[in-house]
Amino acid sequence: MAKSEDSVTSTIITKIEAIRNANPDNLMARHFDADYFRNLDDQNQKRLLAVIATGIENSDSQMGAYAMQNDDYELFAPMLDPMIRDYHGISEDKPIKQAHDWQPDGSTSDLTTIDAGLEEGSMRVRVARNVSGFPLAGAMSRSQRVELENLLINAFKTLINEPGFGGKYLSLTPDNPYEIGAVEYNQRVSDHQMFKDMSVDRYLSVAGISSDWPWGRGMYISEDEGFLVWVGEEDQLRIMAMQRGGDLAGLFERLEIGIHRLEAMLPPFAHSPKYGYLTSCPTNLGAGMRASLHVPLPKLTNGGSDMERVKRAAREFSLAVRGAGGEHSDAGGDGLVDISPSARLGVTEAQIMQSLFNGTAALWALEKQA
Ligand code: ARG
Prior knowledge:
By secondary structure, the chain is α+β, with helices and mostly antiparallel strands. About 35% of the residues lie in helices and about 15% in strands. The strands form 2 sheets. It has an 8-stranded antiparallel β-sheet. Strands 6-7 form a two-stranded antiparallel ribbon. The radius of gyration is 21 Å and the shape is globular. The termini are far apart.
């Protein structure tokens, strides 16, 4: 039996139903079930509202939700699972589950075998990780953000003394011993190493993910600048490897080694056999991995002025395309775009690598014919 409905609840339901009509691609609105929401107790209604607030306030959201606590995924599975299936392309008749496997299957993954011109391409692969024992980024207090940063700084001190890592930690936290100034920060952002000021991202800010900016935020960067760890962005850790050239397998191996070193020094990463690595955004669940390549596609993007055609073409190969300037950016005049496999959940790390390779080959062939 549904409890008697207060006006706040009915206002929210009406608002979400209006979003569903106006923005059919907003997955939160698409899968919102008013009866499910009505039947939650007050405390859980509040918790769920904190998760979906970003998609209510930003009706143009694609996903429209960020988890606040690791157990939100289990607790709100009746609402979140349909959104997760829809985004990751997992049909009703299949279980949601995540296996991990970094071992390439032996087929070639060297991008220069597609075209020697890809030699100069910039490759990047990152994973999202959150440590158990803390809330996810949207629900952390300022002191928890700083506490977590200090925990990580200890691990980075060890890495800095190891051959193959070295490098340094750069903090944005006021008065942190590793604090850097605005000039260096801006330089690192324009070098595509450091993350942008999150507080200007309206999707993140509604979710509380950019709260307390810039406390608890920073980055570890290796001596050769090829292995980096972002601290306190959308997920507590974003661990990444960046490299030029075509050797995708080498890039993945570098990342895997770095993750294992960190894992040995930190509390366990939040993980479930169903959802894989638990992340703020349901789009990043599973392998938690985004592997991407910057490639010039001047013809497919009509000189960088039209992203629609290339996005449509890429979707057939399960790739997402965005401008090389990052999320919500367009291609530059040279048609330089960032392509990456969109599925993260239900696919292994090795499969993600292979689908980036296959997708790049396919888009490159289209570009040549265009
Ligand atoms: N919250 C935004 C949306 O729902 C972005 C989702 C994917 N991007 C991300 N950085 N998690 O449209």
